[in-house]
Protein backbone atom coordinates (compact mmCIF):
# COMPACT_ATOMS: atom_id res chain seq x y z
CA UNK A 1 0.00 0.00 0.00
CA UNK A 2 1.47 3.33 -0.96
CA UNK A 3 2.08 6.37 1.12
CA UNK A 4 -1.04 7.47 2.89
CA UNK A 5 -1.24 10.92 4.17
CA UNK A 6 -3.52 11.50 7.13
CA UNK A 7 -4.35 15.13 9.88
CA UNK A 8 -6.01 17.19 12.99
CA UNK A 9 -9.03 19.41 13.36
CA UNK A 10 -9.14 22.95 14.66
CA UNK A 11 -11.80 25.60 14.39
CA UNK A 12 -11.83 29.36 14.50
CA UNK A 13 -15.13 30.60 15.93
CA UNK A 14 -16.47 34.10 16.19
CA UNK A 15 -17.90 35.41 19.41
CA UNK A 16 -21.38 36.15 18.09
CA UNK A 17 -22.74 36.10 14.57
CA UNK A 18 -20.67 36.50 11.45
CA UNK A 19 -20.91 40.05 10.33
CA UNK A 20 -19.22 43.13 9.04
CA UNK A 21 -18.27 43.88 5.45
CA UNK A 22 -15.58 41.65 3.98
CA UNK A 23 -13.28 44.67 3.70
CA UNK A 24 -13.36 44.94 7.48
CA UNK A 25 -12.62 41.26 7.97
CA UNK A 26 -11.75 40.08 10.54
CA UNK A 27 -13.48 42.54 12.85
CA UNK A 28 -14.15 40.43 15.95
CA UNK A 29 -12.67 37.72 18.14
CA UNK A 30 -11.83 34.30 16.71
CA UNK A 31 -11.95 30.96 18.53
CA UNK A 32 -9.98 27.99 17.28
CA UNK A 33 -11.85 24.77 18.03
CA UNK A 34 -10.02 21.46 18.28
CA UNK A 35 -12.71 18.77 17.81
CA UNK A 36 -11.12 16.45 20.37
CA UNK A 37 -10.05 16.39 23.98
CA UNK A 38 -6.88 18.10 25.18
CA UNK A 39 -3.39 16.79 24.54
CA UNK A 40 -3.59 15.25 21.08
CA UNK A 41 -2.45 16.42 17.66
CA UNK A 42 -5.55 18.50 16.92
CA UNK A 43 -5.37 20.30 20.25
CA UNK A 44 -1.65 21.00 19.86
CA UNK A 45 -2.18 22.27 16.32
CA UNK A 46 -4.97 24.62 17.41
CA UNK A 47 -2.89 26.05 20.24
CA UNK A 48 0.26 26.45 18.16
CA UNK A 49 -1.68 28.07 15.32
CA UNK A 50 -3.41 30.66 17.49
CA UNK A 51 -0.25 31.34 19.50
CA UNK A 52 1.87 32.14 16.43
CA UNK A 53 -0.83 34.06 14.57
CA UNK A 54 -1.20 36.28 17.64
CA UNK A 55 2.47 36.58 18.66
CA UNK A 56 3.63 37.31 15.12
CA UNK A 57 0.82 39.87 14.82
CA UNK A 58 -0.52 38.16 11.70
CA UNK A 59 -4.07 38.40 13.09
CA UNK A 60 -5.02 41.47 15.12
CA UNK A 61 -8.16 40.00 16.68
CA UNK A 62 -8.18 37.97 19.89
CA UNK A 63 -7.84 34.22 19.29
CA UNK A 64 -8.63 31.48 21.80
CA UNK A 65 -8.90 27.68 21.64
CA UNK A 66 -11.96 25.57 22.41
CA UNK A 67 -12.14 21.76 22.53
CA UNK A 68 -15.21 20.06 21.01
CA UNK A 69 -14.71 16.29 21.27
CA UNK A 70 -16.96 13.61 19.82
CA UNK A 71 -16.82 10.95 17.14
CA UNK A 72 -13.28 11.65 16.01
CA UNK A 73 -14.31 15.08 14.72
CA UNK A 74 -17.60 13.93 13.15
CA UNK A 75 -19.83 15.50 15.83
CA UNK A 76 -18.18 18.88 15.40
CA UNK A 77 -18.26 18.75 11.60
CA UNK A 78 -22.00 18.01 11.54
CA UNK A 79 -22.62 21.00 13.80
CA UNK A 80 -20.29 23.17 11.73
CA UNK A 81 -21.93 22.32 8.41
CA UNK A 82 -25.41 22.88 9.83
CA UNK A 83 -24.75 26.10 11.72
CA UNK A 84 -21.68 27.84 10.33
CA UNK A 85 -21.55 27.37 6.57
CA UNK A 86 -21.67 31.16 6.12
CA UNK A 87 -19.63 32.13 9.19
CA UNK A 88 -16.11 33.25 8.19
CA UNK A 89 -15.15 33.60 11.84
CA UNK A 90 -15.15 29.87 12.37
CA UNK A 91 -12.33 27.95 10.73
CA UNK A 92 -11.01 24.53 11.63
CA UNK A 93 -7.83 22.56 11.24
CA UNK A 94 -8.36 18.95 10.21
CA UNK A 95 -6.46 15.86 9.21
CA UNK A 96 -7.36 12.60 7.45
CA UNK A 97 -10.35 11.89 9.74
CA UNK A 98 -12.32 14.41 7.68
CA UNK A 99 -11.91 11.93 4.81
CA UNK A 100 -11.96 8.70 6.81
CA UNK A 101 -15.17 9.45 8.73
CA UNK A 102 -16.96 10.15 5.46
CA UNK A 103 -15.72 6.95 3.76
CA UNK A 104 -15.82 4.33 6.51
CA UNK A 105 -18.64 1.84 7.06
CA UNK A 106 -19.07 1.97 10.86
CA UNK A 107 -20.03 5.33 12.40
CA UNK A 108 -20.09 6.95 8.98
CA UNK A 109 -20.37 10.75 8.76
CA UNK A 110 -22.44 12.17 5.89
CA UNK A 111 -20.12 15.19 5.83
CA UNK A 112 -16.59 15.61 4.50
CA UNK A 113 -14.16 18.16 3.14
CA UNK A 114 -16.47 18.99 0.22
CA UNK A 115 -18.85 20.55 2.76
CA UNK A 116 -16.12 23.06 3.69
CA UNK A 117 -13.53 25.28 2.01
CA UNK A 118 -9.98 23.89 2.28
CA UNK A 119 -7.74 26.93 2.93
CA UNK A 120 -4.21 25.56 3.38
CA UNK A 121 -2.24 22.50 4.40
CA UNK A 122 0.36 23.40 7.04
CA UNK A 123 2.14 20.31 8.33
CA UNK A 124 2.74 16.62 8.08
CA UNK A 125 3.22 14.21 10.97
CA UNK A 126 3.53 10.44 11.24
CA UNK A 127 1.87 7.60 13.07
CA UNK A 128 3.61 5.78 15.90
CA UNK A 129 3.13 2.48 17.69
CA UNK A 130 3.75 3.19 21.38
CA UNK A 131 4.04 1.14 24.59
CA UNK A 132 4.87 2.00 28.21
CA UNK A 133 8.57 2.34 28.99
CA UNK A 134 8.45 -0.84 31.12
CA UNK A 135 6.39 -2.84 28.60
CA UNK A 136 7.38 -6.41 27.80
CA UNK A 137 7.37 -5.40 24.15
CA UNK A 138 10.82 -4.33 22.99
CA UNK A 139 9.99 -4.15 19.27
CA UNK A 140 7.03 -4.04 16.90
CA UNK A 141 7.45 -7.63 15.77
CA UNK A 142 6.91 -8.90 19.33
CA UNK A 143 3.52 -7.14 19.35
CA UNK A 144 2.66 -8.52 15.92
CA UNK A 145 3.59 -12.06 16.91
CA UNK A 146 1.33 -11.89 19.98
CA UNK A 147 -1.53 -10.47 17.89
CA UNK A 148 -1.09 -13.27 15.38
CA UNK A 149 -1.06 -15.92 18.13
CA UNK A 150 -4.15 -14.55 19.94
CA UNK A 151 -5.46 -11.05 19.15
CA UNK A 152 -7.80 -11.14 22.17
CA UNK A 153 -4.79 -11.06 24.52
CA UNK A 154 -3.51 -7.66 23.34
CA UNK A 155 -5.47 -4.46 24.03
CA UNK A 156 -4.75 -1.80 21.42
CA UNK A 157 -6.02 1.75 21.90
CA UNK A 158 -6.09 5.07 20.11
CA UNK A 159 -7.49 8.58 20.32
CA UNK A 160 -10.15 8.17 17.66
CA UNK A 161 -13.21 6.03 16.94
CA UNK A 162 -13.10 2.61 15.22
CA UNK A 163 -12.34 3.03 11.53
CA UNK A 164 -10.78 6.44 12.12
CA UNK A 165 -7.19 7.63 12.05
CA UNK A 166 -5.60 6.13 15.17
CA UNK A 167 -7.44 2.88 14.50
CA UNK A 168 -5.97 2.70 11.00
CA UNK A 169 -2.49 3.48 12.35
CA UNK A 170 -2.96 0.71 14.92
CA UNK A 171 -4.24 -2.01 12.59
CA UNK A 172 -2.30 -1.25 9.41
CA UNK A 173 0.90 -2.97 10.68
CA UNK A 174 -1.17 -5.97 11.83
CA UNK A 175 -2.91 -6.16 8.45
CA UNK A 176 0.45 -6.09 6.65
CA UNK A 177 1.75 -8.73 9.08
CA UNK A 178 -1.03 -11.14 8.13
CA UNK A 179 -3.40 -10.49 11.06
CA UNK A 180 -7.10 -9.97 10.32
CA UNK A 181 -7.58 -6.27 11.25
CA UNK A 182 -11.14 -6.97 12.37
CA UNK A 183 -9.78 -9.36 15.04
CA UNK A 184 -7.64 -6.70 16.73
CA UNK A 185 -9.16 -5.58 20.06
CA UNK A 186 -9.23 -1.79 19.65
CA UNK A 187 -10.42 0.59 22.38
CA UNK A 188 -11.17 4.16 21.31
CA UNK A 189 -10.59 7.33 23.34
CA UNK A 190 -11.48 10.90 22.46
CA UNK A 191 -8.06 12.31 21.69
CA UNK A 192 -4.41 11.30 21.80
CA UNK A 193 -3.98 12.63 25.34
CA UNK A 194 -6.65 10.28 26.69
CA UNK A 195 -5.17 7.32 24.78
CA UNK A 196 -1.73 7.93 26.29
CA UNK A 197 -3.31 8.27 29.75
CA UNK A 198 -4.95 4.86 29.20
CA UNK A 199 -1.59 3.39 28.22
CA UNK A 200 0.17 4.84 31.26
CA UNK A 201 -2.71 3.66 33.47
CA UNK A 202 -2.31 0.06 32.23
CA UNK A 203 -5.67 0.10 30.46
CA UNK A 204 -4.00 -0.62 27.11
CA UNK A 205 -0.96 -2.63 26.04
CA UNK A 206 -0.21 -0.66 22.88
CA UNK A 207 -1.49 2.55 21.30
CA UNK A 208 -1.49 3.90 17.79
CA UNK A 209 -1.11 7.66 17.77
CA UNK A 210 0.71 10.50 16.02
CA UNK A 211 4.39 10.83 16.83
CA UNK A 212 4.04 14.44 17.98
CA UNK A 213 1.54 13.40 20.69
CA UNK A 214 4.08 10.90 22.06
CA UNK A 215 7.08 13.26 21.97
CA UNK A 216 6.90 14.72 25.49
CA UNK A 217 6.24 11.28 27.05
CA UNK A 218 9.21 9.81 25.20
CA UNK A 219 11.46 12.64 26.44
CA UNK A 220 10.20 12.05 29.99
CA UNK A 221 11.04 8.35 29.74
CA UNK A 222 7.40 7.26 30.21
CA UNK A 223 6.90 5.50 26.87
CA UNK A 224 8.80 3.54 24.25
CA UNK A 225 8.08 4.14 20.56
CA UNK A 226 8.36 0.81 18.75
CA UNK A 227 7.98 2.09 15.20
CA UNK A 228 7.02 5.12 13.13
CA UNK A 229 5.06 5.13 9.89
CA UNK A 230 7.39 7.43 7.95
CA UNK A 231 9.26 6.30 4.84
CA UNK A 232 12.62 7.07 6.48
CA UNK A 233 13.82 7.48 10.06
CA UNK A 234 13.02 10.76 11.74
CA UNK A 235 15.64 12.97 13.35
CA UNK A 236 16.09 14.39 16.84
CA UNK A 237 14.36 12.55 19.67
CA UNK A 238 13.15 9.85 17.26
CA UNK A 239 16.43 9.05 15.52
CA UNK A 240 16.66 5.66 17.25
CA UNK A 241 13.09 4.62 16.40
CA UNK A 242 12.86 2.25 13.40
CA UNK A 243 10.30 2.66 10.65
CA UNK A 244 7.76 -0.09 10.03
CA UNK A 245 9.57 -0.88 6.78
CA UNK A 246 12.87 -1.31 8.63
CA UNK A 247 11.06 -3.77 10.87
CA UNK A 248 9.94 -5.81 7.86
CA UNK A 249 6.37 -4.44 7.73
CA UNK A 250 5.59 -2.82 4.39
CA UNK A 251 3.43 0.10 5.52
CA UNK A 252 3.60 3.90 5.62
CA UNK A 253 1.18 6.47 7.00
CA UNK A 254 1.57 10.26 6.81
CA UNK A 255 -0.68 12.56 8.82
CA UNK A 256 -1.32 15.89 7.12
CA UNK A 257 -2.89 18.80 8.94
CA UNK A 258 -4.59 21.77 7.36
CA UNK A 259 -6.97 24.65 7.90
CA UNK A 260 -10.54 24.68 6.60
CA UNK A 261 -13.24 27.34 6.46
CA UNK A 262 -16.99 27.39 5.86
CA UNK A 263 -18.42 26.26 2.54
CA UNK A 264 -19.80 29.71 1.71
CA UNK A 265 -16.79 31.86 2.64
CA UNK A 266 -16.39 34.91 0.39
CA UNK A 267 -13.52 35.28 -2.07
CA UNK A 268 -12.08 38.17 -0.04
CA UNK A 269 -12.23 36.23 3.22
CA UNK A 270 -10.67 33.19 1.59
CA UNK A 271 -7.88 35.35 0.14
CA UNK A 272 -7.26 36.85 3.59
CA UNK A 273 -6.69 33.42 5.13
CA UNK A 274 -4.57 32.18 2.25
CA UNK A 275 -2.28 35.19 2.60
CA UNK A 276 -2.23 35.00 6.41
CA UNK A 277 -1.53 31.26 6.54
CA UNK A 278 1.25 31.60 3.95
CA UNK A 279 2.80 34.30 6.16
CA UNK A 280 2.43 31.96 9.15
CA UNK A 281 4.20 29.19 7.25
CA UNK A 282 7.09 31.51 6.36
CA UNK A 283 7.54 32.96 9.87
CA UNK A 284 10.42 32.10 12.19
CA UNK A 285 7.94 31.73 15.06
CA UNK A 286 6.13 28.94 13.20
CA UNK A 287 9.39 27.17 12.37
CA UNK A 288 10.15 27.06 16.10
CA UNK A 289 6.69 25.57 16.81
CA UNK A 290 7.27 22.91 14.17
CA UNK A 291 10.53 21.91 15.79
CA UNK A 292 9.07 21.92 19.30
CA UNK A 293 6.21 19.61 18.22
CA UNK A 294 8.20 17.31 15.90
CA UNK A 295 6.10 18.42 12.91
CA UNK A 296 7.38 18.87 9.39
CA UNK A 297 6.25 21.79 7.24
CA UNK A 298 4.24 20.99 4.13
CA UNK A 299 2.39 24.01 2.81
CA UNK A 300 -0.26 23.83 0.11
CA UNK A 301 -2.45 26.81 -0.78
CA UNK A 302 -6.19 26.34 -1.29
CA UNK A 303 -6.30 25.04 -4.88
CA UNK A 304 -3.37 22.64 -4.40
CA UNK A 305 -4.74 21.50 -1.04
CA UNK A 306 -8.15 20.75 -2.57
CA UNK A 307 -6.54 18.67 -5.35
CA UNK A 308 -4.41 16.87 -2.74
CA UNK A 309 -7.57 16.00 -0.78
CA UNK A 310 -9.17 14.56 -3.91
CA UNK A 311 -6.14 12.26 -4.34
CA UNK A 312 -6.12 11.35 -0.64
CA UNK A 313 -9.78 10.40 -0.83
CA UNK A 314 -8.92 7.73 -3.41
CA UNK A 315 -6.02 6.37 -1.32
CA UNK A 316 -8.04 6.20 1.89
CA UNK A 317 -11.00 4.54 0.20
CA UNK A 318 -8.65 1.88 -1.20
CA UNK A 319 -7.14 1.32 2.25
CA UNK A 320 -10.50 1.08 4.02
CA UNK A 321 -11.70 -1.34 1.36
CA UNK A 322 -8.64 -3.55 1.89
CA UNK A 323 -9.29 -3.50 5.65
CA UNK A 324 -12.99 -4.33 5.17
CA UNK A 325 -13.97 -0.96 6.68
CA UNK A 326 -15.27 0.96 3.64
CA UNK A 327 -18.95 1.89 3.35
Summarize the structure in words.
With about 325 residues, the chain is an alpha/beta fold. The chain folds into two domains: about 5-125 and about 255-320, 3-Layer(aba) Sandwich (D-Maltodextrin-Binding Protein, domain 2); about 125-240, D-Maltodextrin-Binding Protein, domain 2. About 35% of the residues lie in helices and about 20% in strands. It has helices spanning about 40-55, 75-85, 95-105, 140-150, 165-175, 190-200, 210-220, 265-280, 285-295, 300-320; strands at about 5, 10-15, 30-35, 65, 90-95, 115-130, 155-160, 185-190, 205-210, 225-230, 255-260, 295-300. The strands form two sheets. Strands 1, 5, 6, 7, 8, 9, 10, 11 and 12 form a nine-stranded mixed sheet that branches. Strands 2-3-4 form a three-stranded mixed sheet, with helices on one face. α1 (about 40-55) packs antiparallel against α9. The longest helix is centred in the last third of the chain and has 21 residues, at about 300-320. The radius of gyration is 19 Å and the shape is globular. The relative contact order is 0.20. Mean pLDDT is about 90; it is low at about 1-20.
